Amino acid sequence: MLAALSAGCIVTADVPNAALDVPDIYKSASPIDSDETPPSLDWWRAFRSPELTVLMEEAQRVNLDIAAATARIVQADALASEAGAALLPSVTGGFSGSRSRSSKNTGVVTTGSSVGGRTEVTNHVAQLNASYEIDFWGKNRDALLAAEETANSNRFDRDVVALTTLASVANAYFTVVASQDRLRIAQNNIASAQRIYNAIKSRVDAGTNSDLDLAQQESVLNNQKALVPPLKQTLDQNANVLAVLVARPPERVRLTGASLSQIGIPRVTPGLPSELLIQRPDIRRQENQLASATANVGSARAQFFPSIQLTGSGGYQSAALMALFVPQSAFFNMAAGLTQPIFDAGKIQANFDYNKAKQDELLQTYRKTVVQAFSDVDTALVAIRQTTEKLRLQRNVVISSRRAFELSERQLRAGTADIVTVLNTQLTLFQAEDSLAQAQLARLQAIVSLYQALGGGWSPRTEPKTEEKADAL
Q: Residue ranges per domain, the chain?
């Protein structure tokens, strides 16, 4: 009867209203972006780099941060199972046997059997004990719900870790390739500077140029050589980062690399802002944590009300083992109790206030996560647009700088060029080519940041069947 009535007496915590302001379209999105196909689950394949694809797939299998996050899911599931145990009766069984003999000097008069004036007592007991707390106010049910929501949040936390890991792999790999490009550019620039140096030296030997001209060109040459060690350091550091991400020592990682110009440039469209709420794992994680906190509030509130306990035990008890399991040896005991908190120095109230404050904290964190998600997408869209424009302009700079350098070099060999002009065109070209490689890297990283801001790859959209559409109407 109590179980039937309990459904109407459960104390449910109030679910807070997040009051989210979801825009219709991203501020920095083009009008057609919402109609485009969202990113696929294996979004990294759009870069058309086989080596990057291998690294991504390996990171998903062996990355240690992802493995640790997976282990936390198992822990959370175990805690949820532990919390659910309170909803079912607890049953224990036992068997005991004892034999005692009294002292003959106790002065106690006994009527039992005696040996040498002392009483001996033998007792055998086999019994089952059961206890059950009626969850009349929903305290245990809310505790189970809180544990289940925590377990769900750990699943989304694993997705957050996986997405962060994949973005780190992509960014590190692109930095490695960019460092290789910049090293090739530096080596080519060193060769060009050396060629100009040799031409000036020949003119110095012929008496048509001064030692100052030669010293200035030597400075340019040495500056270009000095750029090589930092680039090699960046290359090695990011290769080591990749090794950690795929759970291998650096000595076991061999990167072929390529050129940034060989990497594909995918078109990434953000879709609708409302879709972001169910695609970004950090938003889903905060949503589950808020649900868990709400359930904890309900459990804490139920502690103000009485606790109803049912206990019972039964079994067999006999002095002779042979006669233990006979009807005459049976016994049982049943009891019911109700406990109402009266004075606990404010402990229950403090626990309730704590859980309410925790719920409010997670509500604000959830709202901030949603707002931050919209901001991340807009920031990434702006970055893609501006880095693409910067790359276009930087290519023009390289073209014009290379033409100016080639003309000045020809004039130098013809003896009609001013050495200052040659020096300036050299430095302009060298800086322009290096800036071009950095601009290519910046655009690729902006694309990766948009994938990350969108929550990685999205499951394919499925259009409802005609019958389902009719039913919905």
A: 2-100+120-472
Question: Which of 338, 356, 402 minimizes the C-alpha distance to 15?
Answer: 356
Separation between Cα atoms, residue 59 and residue 381, nearest integer Å: 27
Where b means 16+ CB within 10 Å and e means fewer, 130-141 reads eebbbbbbbbbb
Closest CA to 171 of 52, 335, 64, 251: 52
Nearest to 374 by CA among 280, 470, 235: 280
What does pTM read for this prediction? 0.84
Question: Which residues, other chains included, contact 25 with Cβ-Cβ below 8 Å and sequence gap of 6+?
Answer: 31, 33, 34, 272, 273
Chosen CATH of 2-100+120-472 out of 3.30.390.30, 1.20.1600.10, 1.10.150.130, 1.10.3720.10: 1.20.1600.10
| Letter string b/e over residues 245-281, b meaning 16 or more CB atoms within 10 A of that residue's CB | bbbeeeeeeebebbebeebebbebbbbbbebbbebbb
For strands 118-134 and 330-339, give the pairing. Answer: unpaired
Looking at this protein, which amino acid is placed at residue 411?
Q
Q: H/E element holding 122? A: strand 118-134
**Model pLDDT for residues 262-288, shown as the tens digit of each residue:** 999 998 888 888 888 888 999 999 999
What are 98's two structure tokens?
């004892």
Distance in Å from the first CA to the final CA of the chain: 43
430 neighbors 361 (Cβ within 8 angstroms): no
